[in-house]
Amino acid sequence: MNSTTYIVGLVATILILAGIVELLRRRQLGEKYAVLWLVVGVVLLIFSIFPNLLPSLADGLGVQLPSNLMFFVAIVFLVGVVLHLSWEVSRLENETRKLAEDLAILQLEVAQQKRENVRE
């Protein structure tokens, strides 16, 4: 790997990690996901600082190309994130439905109270 590629990779990784920290600082990324994304950023930083680590790891695991290992891990990670987010969306849909039902009941009760007050 030439020095330009190494420097570009390292700078890109530092920018990604800084972006994650900034999102956390601004509270635009929830604490629930903070550890996950910080770990991703640190792993990227480690692979950027030690570029020969991925090929060594691929050899140790018997993977022919380091990029295959990287893509496999990335796909597994993204499937996990999508599965978790799908679970979150389902939970929020159920909560929203329940809140809408509760609101409809309260609105009905208020309307009934108004009708009773008008009659008196």
UniProtKB/TrEMBL annotation:
Pfam families documented for this protein: DUF2304
Keywords per UniProt: Coiled coil, Membrane, Transmembrane, Transmembrane helix
TM helices/strands, residue ranges: 6-24, 36-57, 69-87
Keyword Membrane: yes
Coiled-coil residue windows: 89-116
InterPro entries, A to Z: DUF2304
Protein name: DUF2304 domain-containing protein
